[in-house]
Amino acid sequence: MKILVIYGPNLNLLGKRDPAHYGTRTLSDINDALARKASELKVELATLQSNSEGTLIDFIQEQTDGAAGIIINPGALTHYGLSLRDALADTGLPVIEVHLSNIHARERWRTKSVIAPVARGQISGLGWRGFLAALDLLVQLLEEND
Hints:
Layout: E1 2-7, H1 19-22, H2 27-41, E2 44-49, H3 53-63, E3 67-73, H4 77-80, H5 82-91, E4 95-99, E5 121-124, H6 129-144
Parallel strand pairs: 1-2, 1-3, 3-4, 4-5
């Protein structure tokens, strides 16, 4: 079972970028933790971080065949990435949206997600652990539907 893990703009700066909101773990730290969890769950991960919406969409379109689900932190594209939203919806795969910080407790403009309506669920405010929870929950959901 292959799961796509997608990180949007500025997530390459994790560990340096506003640690009060995003923590001190780097993207590499998160990917390492996810790889360990994926090994336990016996699933394969395909990951990508990009600051470009088009690159994220290309990855989704190229990787959809053979994928079972998607975990995504769209970064600021959460609030206005309509082409990204459409690409996710077009896959027909279950999507879990993850945010390190609690987007509902921050600036008002951050509370609106254009991704949420096409996602199976959203995890927000649990820091890097939200990605591990998303992987665990997504695998459970997929196994229940087999």
